[in-house]
Specification:
globular; alpha+beta; HIT family, subunit A; 5-stranded antiparallel β-sheet
Length: 137
């Protein structure tokens, strides 16, 4: 298993730091976020260390996504969540604070006060088309 001795999430995987684990399989661990946005906010991580979305192996990413789906189902069924946000932050400018890939599973409730940092507004169609052209193969 790939680990980073300084990584707090690697320490959780190793059992060296306490956590409120809620799900685990052979490749992933899910535990409660210590700074929850809503009731039931959990983090899903690969047991192998990968700093972010751009470095995680595809099969590890798939394993995390499948586990996040399982945790989302648990939140929906056991916490009566009205919806679920899955969120990954890649890089400090995108609010990543722990550099071990992780996916936030954030249960949403009809009257919860949590707001994401932006409000969608219509974009400029020409700029959208130009950007799409840059991203195509």
């Amino acid at each position: 298993m790939t680990t980073d001795a300084e990584c707090i999430f690697c320490k959780i995987v190793a059992g060296d730091l306490p956590s409120e684990k809620i799900y685990e399989d052979d490749r992933t661990v899910a535990f409660m976020d210590l700074n929850p946005g809503t009731r039931g906010h959990a983090l899903v991580i690969p047991k192998n260390h990968a700093p972010d979305l751009l470095t995680i192996e595809p099969d590890e990413l798939a394993a995390v996504t499948q586990s996040a789906q399982q945790v989302a189902r648990l939140a929906k069924e056991r916490l009566d969540a009205d919806g679920i946000n899955l969120l990954n932050c890649c890089g400090a400018e995108a609010w990543q604070t722990v550099f071990h890939f992780h996916m936030h599973v954030v249960p949403r409730y009809t009257d919860d006060p949590l707001q994401l940092p932006w409000i969608p507004e219509a974009g400029d169609p020409d700029e959208i088309a130009a950007t799409a052209a840059l991203l195509r193969d």
